[in-house]
Design a protein that fits this description.
Layout lengths: L14 H4 L2 H20 L9 H16 L2 H24 L1
């Protein structure tokens, strides 16, 4: 057909730009560790907040149960919750 377009495939990320499985795994683990340190540094009144326990659950149990591709989203959710807890503690 004269007006038909040829299918365009999306560009594939090369393994050099994405890194191999171990590099991605280590990067996600390092980000998780940073979030745990950030959560533990909040201290005092925030630790009695229900969100504190939920953030720990996200960073430990939920993180371990999900696949590597989903772990980044779990970390983003935990980071958001930690942001909220930090804002609550500065206001108290």
């Amino acid at each position: 057909m004269p007006h038909r377009r040829s299918p365009v495939s999306p560009p594939k990320a090369s393994s050099a730009t994405r890194g191999d499985f171990r590099q991605r795994y280590d990067a996600v683990e390092a980000r998780r560790e940073k979030l745990i340190v950030r959560l533990r540094s909040i201290g005092g009144s925030a630790q009695s907040h229900p969100g504190y326990k939920r953030a720990l659950t996200l960073l430990n149990d939920t993180f371990r149960k999900t696949k590597l591709a989903q772990r980044l989203a779990v970390l983003e959710a935990a980071a958001w919750l930690i942001d909220i807890l930090e804002r609550l503690t500065t206001g108290l």
